[in-house]
Amino acid sequence: MSYDFSMQCTAPGCTNKGTKKCSACRVTFYCSKQCQKKDWKAHKKKCATLAMTPGGADYRDLFKDKDGVYVFEDIESERSFTLGVHESLIDSIPAVQSNVDMIRRMHRFTGPYTLKKIVRGKPVLPPPPHRMAVGDEVLVAVGPESVHPPYVDGWKRGVVRELHVEGRDPHAYKVQLEDGSVVPAHRDDPDFVRHADESKEGKAVRFDVGQQVECRIGPDEYVRGVIRERNAEMPGWGRGWTVDAKPHPRWSGPRDTVAYLVTPEGKDFDPRDQMSSLSVPADKDEYIRAWAPNSRG
């Protein structure tokens, strides 16, 4: 099914579809320059006001010195909208998603879309996803033995105190050990940090095999797919593997798992093709979410 995303020409008496926006307000549509000139006498009285409405050219500038604003772009139609979210709710994902859903229903958008946060006129990328949360009890690699197969020595217990630590020595987590000292976990994978409770590590609980989902592959980019396997072992991912991704002969305990393996939409799983499967390291919305065709892009 295809849709006509153009609007009706605003010029009085014209029944054509408007395919061009007024460059000043970015809200009003016209089918031609002739119709735009014909309507200018009436339009110029409200052009500046329209520019301040949601979707208008100046609406983003109105909010850019406050707490930020979200810009929604429908990829198929190449139309974008500045979302009118009250400043007290700008970081409320349900409020933002509600506005996205309303626009998509109103214009019958069903394809993929992007959603970017703008603060002081500049896009703000979301922080990278994390398998752990602040307050989680973890085992963190503190010795050189922890980075050699089978990845089981040189570990200490602690609590996550901070995520995504930037600076001269950037790392995924800051962990406070039982003796009170603080150490970094340099990367967010089982070779550097894992749940102290092994039963939580990589365990998928939300989605079933065969369920349609969306997997995050970039800061604001998701790919649709179907769950192929839950709690799957992945050669080389964490404990129990050799450096060449084979089962380690000296390891008899449970191997670390990824939460899901997902077959992307439009692909058939092929064990020889790495791109025919997506690995999801944790069962969290930051990595994987349900696909609702009527509300998601």
How is this structure best described in words?
With 297 residues, this protein is mostly beta strands. Helices cover 12% and strands 31% of the residues. It contains four helices and 18 strands. Strands 12-11-10-9-13 form a five-stranded antiparallel sheet, with no helix packed on it. A five-stranded antiparallel sheet has the order 17-16-15-14-18, with no helix packed on it. A hairpin with a 5-residue loop joins strand 10 and strand 11.
Number of strands: 18
The portion of residues assigned to helices is 10-25%
* Whole-angstrom Rg: 25 Å
Number of helices, where a helix is a run of at least 4 consecutive DSSP H or I residues: 4
Task: Characterize the biggest β-sheet.
Answer: 5 strands, antiparallel
The overall number of domains is: 4
Beta-strand content: 25-35%
Adjacency order of strands in the biggest sheet: 12-11-10-9-13
| CA-CA gap between termini | 16 Å
Structural class, by secondary structure, is: mainly beta
User: What is the H/E string?
Assistant: EEEEHHHEEHEEEEEEEEEEEE
* Average pLDDT number: 80
Oligomer: single chain
Shape estimate: elongated
Runs with pLDDT <50, length 5+?
Answer: 1-5, 62-66
